[in-house]
Amino acid sequence: MRLSIGRSLFLWVVGSTVLLLVLFSLALYLIVGRALYQGLDDRLETLAQGMVALCEWEEDRGAVCFEAADEPRGPLAEAGRIAAVELRSWPDGAVVHRSGAALPEPAATGGLRAGAASFTDLGDGLRLCTLLVTVPTALDADGEGATPGFSVLARVAEPLAPLQAQLADLLLWVLLSVAIAAVVVVAFGRLLSRRFVRPLGELAEAAASLRGGDRARLPRSGTDDELDRLAGLLDDGIERLEAAAERQARFTADAAHELRNPISVIHNAASVALRNPRDPADYRAFLEDVLGTARRMGGIVDGLLLMARMDAGAARQAFDDCDLAAIAAEAAAADPARVHVAAGGPARLRGDARLLRILVDNLVANALRHSEGGVHVEVEADAAGAVVLRVRDAGPGIPPEQAERVFERFHRGAEARSDDGGAGLGLAIVAEIARLHGGGCQLAPGTGGTTVVVRLGRG
Length: 459
What we know:
Number of strands: 14
Helix content: 40-55%
Distance between the termini: 47 Å
Structural class: alpha+beta
Shape: rod-shaped
Mean pLDDT: 79
Largest sheet: 5 strands, antiparallel
């Protein structure tokens, strides 16, 4: 089962934090427990060394003796925490001193090393420290008559109950702390997940409102964080989609309107021709009228298909290296007497050579249709790295109030007629091809004629 973003975030935050808390608490318990055991062992070893220090060699008996009257009565002994003390001469194992609980027999000599204490837990809840100490031979002040050296095995035991009680208290506090921290982490995780998911929910609600036709900008927190940037990108994308949908709707309505007229012409011509018997010359006139109208419809349909293909972005797949100067020269070759091309050299760019030829043909044909003289075509690469195409005619020019709309689809001025038979798609196709190639087009200001300037990106 796939979890939502909020639940996934909650589980990750709570799970990882609780795991870290458990690991930290376990490490704390182990470290403190080890420190408590180390402190107990240090106390036992210190007491064992102190007991050995009270042992002396007795000349009369020829053995080790312990001065019981001088036995240390430190805080541990007075508090009753020392359960047993035992001193033995070594290696014979004779008991020198014993107090408290009985201890098991010591290990063999092979398991002991002089000066090194060993610690074991006895079965009856005692911690036993075993220490073997060797006292070296001592000389008197004259350097004569030595006191022989001897070895003493000291064993001191202390109950583990106080230490285990401390560890139990520590464990209780650790578990209580982990439980409280877990509750806080769960609450924080829920708060964090809700705070993080709430803006996403608001974005989803705002996006869902688009289905009902309501258009509002997506909510933002004003912090310019990732969610604000996401909302901005979504707003931009939605605005582009709305613009494309509006343009498509307008385009469809205009196309239907443009196609309705020639269809009506064909229908009326056919109806009139079939209404009464006529001679072949009349039928021929009707058929020529139908043929001309059908050609106009074909131009409109071809333009519509080309515009739809460019709107879909499919034309970019055919981009390749091409030379706009060479394409303009080929277009001018169809009417070299009226079209003059001036190119400063190759003008290379990445694009669709077929579409660029349509762009030049539409501009040249539109200029020839409105010009009584020649058409001048200039191609150059400017300093900004773009390829610039200028087509200038000697016609009457375009009124300033129409300059903004000449590149719109299906726009026709009072005197203007485009290359598609008057449908108003010629300059609109030019504008779309320029946009597809990373550029744009505009009318250059001038006193006579019309100059269309097309700027194309080279990438």
